[in-house]
Amino acid sequence: xxxxxSRRDLLKASGVLALTLPATPLHAxxxxxxxxxxxxxxxxxxxxxxxxxxxIDLSLAEKIAKAFEAKYPGIAVRVERTGAERVFQRISQxxxxxxxxxxxxxxxxxxxxxxWKRTGILQPYVPEDVAKYYPPEHKDxxxxxxxFRVGLSVIGYNTNLVKAEEAPKSFADLLDPKWxxxxxxxxxxxYFEKLAKQKIMQVQSSTDPPKKLALGERAVMVDGNEYxxxxxxxxxxxxxxxxxxxxxxxxxxxxxxFKNAPNPxxxxxxxxxxxxxxxxxxxxxxxxxRSVHPQAKEHAGRRPLKDIKVxxxxxxxxxxxxxxxxxxxxxxxxx
Length: 335
Fold this sequence. Notes:
The chain is built from twelve helices and ten strands. By secondary structure, it is an alpha/beta fold. The N terminus is likely disordered.
């Protein structure tokens, strides 16, 4: 099955596997952290709404919206949910036409925030929780964005088709000829060149591999998002997650707000809410994603993030070399 390369694919294909936000050039010190004050709430209520473009699953986005509306009655959240690339393209098109419709944004691709920061359209704003609780590597040095969610790209297998003792435990195991034609994928170049010989099913989105596993269309998943696999497993589907011994690729999905936000105070209030332990618990429990907020509790039955060896991506490197990486990846896999 043919697929379209996203920036997420480029992050993996780059082979720069070193958990964190990209190191972006320091232009100015981050502004002081801002607490949620009665004045901010009153100003946000006068605006009466906030517009949120996001690539998180709609069920999670709607839960967050409802929680925010319950906490701050009189402020409606308009969720505009689509894939990360489409979020990026939509904002680019709107801004090129001087249409300023979005207040707050989330993308599963940290490279988007490098591009937005470079063009100067993000509004520096540091929520109190970010300043207090978030590690330095999970917040922009200039206060323009921070890690709203953390995603992992895992190996997986169908428990009806593969015995636990025979399941792959590492990326190296996936090169075994016994898995040829039995895998679906969404790690340096040498690995990809060998992997391409395994007759991999290419799919459109990171949400697809876990679904292919659950349906039994493939026995093994080379890489796919952890959260869909966990949700399917917890629903009783024959899906098991494997955290490869070499390390599990990890990508952060930041949140930010815009200088030209039509509802600037509501945008700040919403941004602050998104980084609270209350909202981050929804990210974990409803979204099956990961959080770096220390007051958010791990979900029972899932391996804690601290116990998973992770590989971090180089979003800045991908942003710089995207076209070369895409061309090489396409050549190897014929997509």
